Amino acid sequence: MTSGTGAAAIELQNVVKRYPIRELPAVDGLSLSVPEGQFVALMGPSGSGKSTLLNLVGALDEASEGHIEVFGSTLDGLSDQGLTTFRRHTVGFVFQTFHLIPALNALENVMTPMIADRRQRKMIGKALEALRAVGLEGKESQLPGTLSGGEQQRVAMARALVMEPRLLLADEPTGNLDARTGDEIMTLIEDLHTSRGMTVLLATHDPAVALRADRVVGLIDGMLVTDVIVPEDMTAEELIADMGATSQPD
Amino acid sequence: MGVVATIAAGVVLIGGLGGETLARVKRNVSTDWRPVYDLLVLPSGAHPSMDLGGTEVFESNFMAGLQGGITRKQWHEVLDVPGVEVAAPVATVGYMRRDLPLFDFLELPPGLYSVDRVVKWDNGYETRIQTASIDDGLKSRVGGRKLDYSPKTQIHLYPPLNDAGYRLSGDDYTVTGFRSQIAYKADDGTLIDYVEDEEAWDPLGIDPGGTFVVYGIDPTQEAKLTGLDALAQGHYLTGEGPYLPVGYLGDLRKGSEFCTTFKCKQAFKIPLLINTQGWTKTDFEITFRRWRLPPLLPGRLAELAGPCPKRLVEKLGSGTVCFPPNLRAMFREAGTEVVLTTKLPIDDSRFGGRMALKSGRWRRTGEFTPRQDFAWVARPSAIRYEPLDEFPTGPWVGAVRAIPSGSYGPEPTFREQLPTSEKKSFLEYNIFGRFDGSELAERFSGRGNWLPEDTYRPPREVLRFDNEGLPIDPVELRPTANPLGYLLEPPRALTTLRAAAQLLGEAPISAIRVRVGGVDDASEEAWTRIENVARQIQEATGLEPVVTLGSSPARVLVHVPGITKEEQTSGREAWSLPNFVSLAMTGGPQFHEPRPAHDAEGVGWVEEPWLTEGAAISYLRAGTAQHAWLIAVLAGAVLVYLMAAFTSLGLAEVHATAIRRAVGWRRKQVFLREMRRALKLGTIGAVAGAVAGTAGAQLFDFPVEGLLVVIGVVLGVALCCLSAIFPAWSAGGVPLAHVLAGGELAVGRARAQRSHGARLRIGQLALAEVLRMRTRALLALAAGIVATGSLMLIVGLRQQFGGSLQVTLLGQAILVDTGPLQTAVTVVASLLAVALLGEILWQNVMDRRTEIGVLRAIGWARSQVARLMLWQGFILGGGCALVGVLASGAVLLPVLGWETTGSLVSGGAPAAFGAGACLGLLAAGVPAYRASRQSPAGVLRSL
Question: pTM of the entire structure?
Answer without folding.
Answer: 0.55
